Amino acid sequence: MTTVAGNRGAGRWRLWCGHRPFLAGLLMGLGGLELICVSWAGLGFLRFTGIAGASSWILGALLVAAGATTWWNPSLRHFAGVLAGVLSLVSLVAANFGGLLVSFVLTAVGSALALAWVSPPAATDVPGDGEMN
Questions:
Q1: Nearest-CA neighbor of 68 among 21, 10, 16?
Q2: Can you list the alpha helix ranges (DSSP code H) found in the chain?
Q3: How far apart are CA 103 and CA 98, in angstroms?
Q4: Which stretches in the chain have pLDDT values below 70?
Q5: Which of 6, 26, 101, 126 is most buried by a 10 A CB count?
Q6: What gap in Å lies between CA 13 and CA 43, rounded to an integer?
C-alpha cells in the first residue's frame, strides 16, 4: 500500500531525475569511485603506491566532481562530459589501466551520455486546456 505522501516523493524524484542527465552523472561518479577503490583496496597485485596510486585518487575525485556537476548544474553538462572523457583516457595510462578498464568504460559511457543529453522542452500553454479564446 502506498500513501499519498509516498507518491508525491516518488513524483518529485522522477521529476528531478528527468530534468537532468542523471544516469550520466551516476556513471561518472561510479567510475571515479571505482578508480579510487581499486587503488585503495589493493586487489593483491596492486599493492604498490606512488604515481599510479596518487593519480587514481586525483582522477577519481575529479570524475566524482564531474558527475556531481551534471546533477546539480545540468547547463555545465558539456564541460563535465568533455572533462570526464579526457580523464577516462588519462586513467588508462596514469591509473592502473583505467581502474582495470571498469572505470574507463563507466566514465566513457557517462561522458557520452552527458554530451548527448537534451533537456526536456519547457511546458507551454496548450490551447483548449480551459482558457477562453
A1: 21
A2: 4-18, 22-41, 51-72, 77-94, 96-100, 102-116
A3: 6
A4: 1-6, 41-49, 122-133
A5: 26
A6: 36
Whole-model pTM: value is 0.77
Q: CA nearest 104: which of 7, 28, 22? A: 28
Model confidence pLDDT, tens digit, residues 34-71: 988 887 765 555 555 677 777 888 999 999 999 999 99
What's the CA gap between 87 and 107, in Å, rounded?
Answer: 8
Taking residue 74's Cβ as centre, other Cβ atoms within 10 Å add up to 18
What b/e sequence results for 27-59 when a residue is b if at least 16 CB atoms lie within 10 Å of its CB, and e otherwise? bbbbbbbbbbbbbeeeeeebeeeeebbebbbbb
Place of cell 482558457: 131
Q: What is the identity of the amino acid at 109?
A: V
Cell digits of residue 49: 603506491
Separation CA 24–CA 16 (nearest Å): 14
